[in-house]
Amino acid sequence: MASLSIFAAILAGIVAASSGFPHEKSLPRGEAEFYPLSASQEASLALPPTAPTSAFYGEVVTSTTTGEPAADGEGETSHVFEAPTAASAATRAAAASSAESYDELFLLAPIEVIGRRGFDPGTGAGSSIAVEKTRGRVDDAGALLSQETGVHVRDGGGNAALQSISIRGSGGNQVDMFINGVPLPSGLASAVSPGLFPLDALERIDIYRGSAPARYARAPLGGVLDIVTRNPEDAVAGVRAATGSLGRGEVSAFVPVKAGGTHLVLGGGFERSNGAFDYLDNAGTVFNTADDRIRARENNDRSAGNLFLLLEHPGDGVVVRGHALATGFNQGIAGFAWAPARAARLDTRLYATGVETVVHQGDWEFGVAGFGGILRERLRDVLGDFGAPNGNTLNTAEQAGARAVVGYNSRGVVEPELVVEAEWLRFGEETPQSASPNWYRRRLGAALSLRSDLRRLTLTATYHPELDVLQAGAGSNHDEAVHVLHAVSGGAALDIGHGVTLVANAGTGFRIPSIREQFGTRGFQLGNPKLRPETGRFVDAGLQVSGARADFGWFADLRWFRQDIDNIIAVYQSTPKAAKAGNFDSAVAAGGEAELRGSWRELNLGLNGVYQSVVNTGSIREYRGKMLPGRPRWELGFDTGWNAGFVHPFYRLDASGDLFLDPVNSPARHIDERFVHHVGLSVRPMQELTLTANLNNFTDTRTYDYLGLPLPGRTWALVAQYTLH
Prior knowledge:
Blueprint: H1 4-10, H2 39-43, H3 89-97, E1 115-117, E2 126-130, H4 141-145, E3 151-154, E4 164-167, E5 175-179, E6 182-183, E7 202-208, E8 223-229, E9 237-244, E10 248-259, E11 262-273, E12 278-281, E13 293-296, E14 302-314, E15 318-332, E16 345-361, E17 364-381, E18 391-408, E19 415-430, E20 439-453, E21 457-472, E22 480-497, E23 500-511, H5 515-519, E24 525-526, E25 534-549, E26 552-575, E27 578-600, E28 603-616, E29 634-642, E30 647-656, E31 659-660, E32 670-671, E33 674-686, E34 689-696, E35 715-724
Parallel strand pairs: 5-8, 24-27
Antiparallel strand pairs: 1-2, 2-7, 3-4, 5-6, 7-8, 9-10, 9-35, 10-11, 11-14, 12-13, 14-15, 15-16, 16-17, 17-18, 18-19, 19-20, 20-21, 21-22, 22-23, 23-25, 25-26, 26-27, 27-28, 28-29, 29-30, 30-33, 31-32, 33-34, 34-35
């Protein structure tokens, strides 16, 4: 069984904060010592949802195996034992005697941490962001993700519905997105924007770099994002209202309902913004300042609404969970700084649903899930800013699928898990002139994983085969493309004692061509029947260190990574009036990541950063050796907060290095490094009410995003949250 120092690293910095308590003490099997906590210490144990709830609401935490901690207790059961303050001596003795072993004794107290590294699959490949800690401090899920190590959010000019995610230099279409463990429908060319998901419905966001657990039955090149909704059994009612600059207004509410043994959460919200701000228009001539001028950002408004239903029905050895989400964005597409679009609008609708049943029979676990979704994107371009005048294009993706899981818990020797998933998707594109034929994708994937937890060593291995069939309807130039692919991955974590754990992961991945890349469209883009899937290899290695001394605690995660990607798909101009996708490029992304967190009494500090080189190694001479577009050389984040009584001031720095907007890295398409500072204050005049004031980008830094879209300068927001505890 792995020792508690692994567990301390997994929980990333929740460390001792009270003098007079022992930091570490060896105990034989069946023995434990208990140290009473003060009332203030118990009240301060505000843990993120990823922590097992039984781990900290008491006086002592003993040894644990590194499982898959989740708020609902899913995954492997962590062997964590507690003794609440009110527990009798007999209860405490029973808890001690039920443990398999006690290697170390830690007394842990909270540290306010947004990210959490290394909780799954036991080898440091995963991290989790707790939404609760940031409510009122960020506007959407994309802003939350931008604070995570190695995750770059391409924010579409500050528009939540146009966000895409890059992990360790990957492309946005190389990251797979899930909700509660089931896949989301993707569009003709790209994945769903994380900004579409209402924060009120979310509990956390799980992030996997490279190595993804078998339960996703995927092997993406860039990684996995899993949007995890609230646990209905623990939810409380709440209402939220916000106002701010850029004409922002927002209101949302959610309420738990219990019907018999079924727990439900019903919620919804609406928001709007005019998106108007001043920016510098350089007319597309970086080196000629004579034509620069200040302009007002127009056609940048948006309105959005959402409804969601969450369900959980616990039973005797059986748990049923479900979700239904409907969200929509209507927004102006303002265009580039030097070429604004005056009337183009995008209407996005996402509907996603899923139901999962999990059955526990002794050491066996059986699960079955069904899921479905619809993604509709309508672009109206009356003036032809993005194409022909009176353009009106509707793209639709419809999805249905099912998944089955079988797992066996062999108490740490060898724990197998088998996942089989089938998915069906239909894509369509309609214009006023014609409707393109329906395109179909049928996917059958599986994953077999083996996991072994020895005393101080955790090993994982996963094999993932997949069959993809892409098919076009009548009228298409190309009828069918069949792809059969395989991927493998593995990881190891070695606890060497004194709070130090060595971690390493390696594996392969792939990306199937999108429908648009494979078959083209009725308009500008042609299909390519010879297109091959993108393939890649990844490896990372590093260490995690945690410790505590009296009132001070710390956690560090240092990681080196490298990813080689072949057959990168790029669209090129094949004729004066048409474009075509081809396998032209390859790339190497390599660098280092670091996350440091600590606490001293009421003060919390966090620092994370990444330095990476993402270089084109393909066959095109003009591109070879150049940085891939939209990838900054480095990113740095720093946050701190002071939790004193009912007043909580906080500060955050978001900084990123320079990048290029084109594959040839021309100086005219260069974006400088940026440093953006944010400050805020949360006040809690009563337990149910939290008032938060944010001043974002208070130095009024004017810059552009990865597409050259201007970003707002200084903005402010006031948020009120009322929760019925």
